[in-house]
Amino acid sequence: MKTALLAVAKALALDFEKILAAEGFKIFKAEDGQELVDLAREIKPDVIILEKKLPVLDGLSAVLLLKNSQETRHIPIVAVCEEKCNQEEEAQDAGCDAYLTRPLKADKIRQILKELVAR
């Protein structure tokens, strides 16, 4: 079974959980950036979905830690941002493999998941 690790706001998590469950993913959730890093190292998910604004350790710092680690650098990471934010370049520089803006579109999420997990 494919696994996904989510570190997003609760309102967003519900949207992602519906889509991920429909696509056959087992879902793990992290409440903050440090928990995200720890869980990623433990479970080695097939994909990570996160927001930049996370408590304890922000999302992009978590991405840098994961992408600089031999054991987790292969895990695809999707960054999620507000509709009008201009953080795509920053997310890519940190090592994110894909980028989504709100409002989220289910078809776009499915397309990105298929592309990233198929690698």
UniProtKB/TrEMBL annotation:
Signal peptide: none annotated. SUPFAM superfamilies: CheY-like. The keyword Oxidoreductase does not apply. PROSITE patterns: RESPONSE_REGULATORY (PS50110). Keywords: Phosphoprotein. GO terms for biological process: phosphorelay signal transduction system. Residues 2-117 form the Response regulatory domain. Pfam families: Response_reg. This is Response regulator. It comes from Thermodesulfatator atlanticus.
